[in-house]
Design goal:
The complex is a heterodimer. Chain A is an all-alpha fold. Helices cover 84% and strands 0% of the residues of chain A. The longest helix of chain A is centred in the first third of the chain and has 39 residues. The N terminus of chain B is likely disordered. Classes of the chains: A mainly alpha, B mainly alpha. Chains A and B meet through α1, α5, α6, α9 and α10 of A and α2, α6, α7, α10 and α11 of B. Chain A: Keywords: Cell membrane, Membrane, Transmembrane, Transmembrane helix, Transport.
């Protein structure tokens, strides 16, 4: 009896997970099929005039993406957005970490500059997008710069928090053994930072992508934000939907890559 | 006796200012120094006022836009949209969080969907939203809600998971009604989570509103910034950024003050 009682909930939980998987696939297929059928049969036309203009259709979106992929434009757009995001992320990370390490060198420095960082962080940085477009041009530089402006603060705050979280005894011991500033940085601070920096990286990835897309909305000659804005400007929503789908694929793929990376990086903690 | 102690204390106090005053003083000095370097660069011609503006120009513009009152309708438009979006997000997000948490199957089914939606930068939907809802308040609020509501939803789910099961059991054992359990266990445990959601989504909602204003609008701070940069009016851009910064800091400090009033225990 006890065996049954303990096993039953486990089996039920399993089946809930499984049921959820089935429901997910079912909902997705049903949703897409319903969308397509509603557009094909003209069912939507009873609800709104000219539904194709508003809702496009899954087949139209897929066809457009396929067409762009075949004529090679797609890779150009994806690459523009992706490279701008990576450049912004990389530069922002380097600047943010350097600033964070600098601030951690003395409490005086930290208290002095703290309100300046908070004030700058309070600024909605996407508001800089048109200004950056005006001063850095409509190329990749203005998008990367916007990403940097956002990402820097995530890394700055995470670096200072990570450095503060270091066990002070460790630093005392190192000092006692006559370690230099550089040695303390290398032996105590950097290893402890890794986890915090990884957290910062995961947060900033989405933020950098958002920044680049906003930059492309404001002024661009290419990129996924440009595809969406182009569809908006031409009143052709298929382009908008295609851009959203592409962006979703990029976001989910990079997030999955980060998760896998985290799994391997933190393996030593679990074993 | 007392005079001697006083005498021995006062000089020590006089020698240095109180630490907090000193820090504030030094911080002000740093800000002034930065402004001075900026201004001197412009005066000496190292940087042209056309490109980087100058503190004096910005101060003049600040006085101008507030003096003439032209900024107020735009400021109220943006802040109003942000506040409405926050309120709607709180209601919709919390309700969604409660509904999803109520059923294990619903939660397991919809969780990946919400993760996927949150993974896509929501600003991507901006142009679509403007196309559907037109240029104006509705589109701004909708975009902001599409960003901020998820914060409330996620935090509500977390908060409901963190309700102490021991307290729940004891309450049930003592024959508490549904409403009593709600009042005594669930709401107190949820409150800090909702508050942190409010704190997080404040900035996000404002960003959503401003992006919607970039995409297409006739009013609001985002519209003004967009117009100023199209005209290469650096002074205007910087002035508006400062207005935004002050608005967002003021918003946040009001929130923190409110929290101390409403929830003095955290």
């Amino acid at each position: 009896m006890t065996l049954v009682a303990t096993q039953a909930p486990a089996r039920e939980a399993m089946s809930v997970e499984k049921k959820a998987r089935f429901l997910q696939v079912g909902l997705l297929v049903f949703g897409l099929a319903f969308w397509e059928m509603a557009m094909r049969t003209g069912l939507m036309a009873y609800l709104v005039p000219n539904p194709g203009f508003w809702f496009s259709s899954p087949s139209a979106i897929a066809t457009l993406i396929w067409k762009l992929a075949v004529n090679g434009q797609l890779w150009n757009h994806v690459w523009l957005t992706f490279s701008a995001t990576l450049i912004g992320l990389g530069l922002g990370a380097v600047i943010g970490i350097l600033l964070g390490v600098l601030m951690a060198q003395s409490t005086r420095l930290e208290t002095l500059f703290d309100p300046i960082w908070s004030a700058l962080n309070a600024l909605p940085k996407v508001a800089l997008a048109p200004a950056f477009a005006a001063s850095f041009g409509i190329g990749i530089a203005s998008k990367s710069a916007l990403a940097v402006a956002i990402v820097v603060f995530v890394f700055l705050f995470n670096t200072t928090a990570g450095l503060r979280a270091i066990n002070p005894t460790l630093i005392c011991n190192l000092k006692l053994m006559g370690a230099s500033r550089l040695q303390i940085l290398r032996m105590a601070m950097l290893p402890s930072l890794v986890r915090w920096l990884y957290g910062a990286l995961r947060i900033s990835l989405g933020l950098a992508l958002t920044a680049v897309v906003v930059g492309e909305f404001v002024a661009a000659r290419g990129g996924i934000g440009f595809i969406i804005q182009y569809g908006f400007g031409m009143f052709n929503v298929t382009w908008c939907y295609a851009g959203i789908v592409l962006l979703g694929i990029i976001a989910l793929a990079t997030d999955a890559a980060m998760r896998i990376g985290e799994y391997y990086l933190t393996r030593w903690e679990r074993s | 006796m007392s005079t001697t102690t006083l005498a021995s204390i006062t000089p020590a106090r006089k020698r240095g200012m109180p630490a907090s005053v000193k820090i504030a003083f030094e911080r002000t000095l740093i800000v002034l120094a930065i402004l001075l370097v900026w201004q001197v660069c412009v005066w000496t011609g190292i940087a042209s006022a056309q490109k980087v503006s100058s503190p004096i120009l910005v101060a003049g513009r600040l006085v101008e836009i507030f003096g003439s009152g032209m900024i107020w309708p735009h400021l109220f438009d943006t802040l109003g949209a942000t506040l409405i979006a926050l309120a709607l997000s709180a209601v919709i997000g919390t309700a969604l969080g409660i509904i999803i948490s109520a059923n294990r199957l619903v939660e397991a089914t919809l969780e990946p969907l919400f993760v996927a939606i949150q993974g896509i930068p929501r600003v991507a939907f901006g142009p679509m939203i403007v196309l559907f809802l037109g240029v104006g308040m509705t589109a701004k609020v909708f975009l902001a809600v599409s960003i901020a509501a998820f914060v409330f939803m996620g935090n509500t789910q977390q908060g409901l998971k963190k309700v102490d099961p021991g307290v729940m059991r004891n309450l049930r054992l003592m024959g508490a009604s549904r409403r009593q359990i709600m009042k005594m266990a669930i709401i107190p445990s949820l409150a800090p989570w909702l508050w942190s959601a409010l704190d997080l989504s404040l900035g996000l909602a404002m960003i959503g509103v401003i992006i919607a204003e970039f995409i297409s609008s006739t009013r609001g701070l985002g519209h003004l910034i967009s117009a100023a940069s199209l005209g290469f009016d650096t002074t205007g851009v910087i002035t508006l950024l400062i207005v935004m910064m002050i608005a967002s800091i003021a918003f946040r400090s009001i929130l923190i003050r409110l929290r101390r009033r409403v929830f003095p225990w955290f």
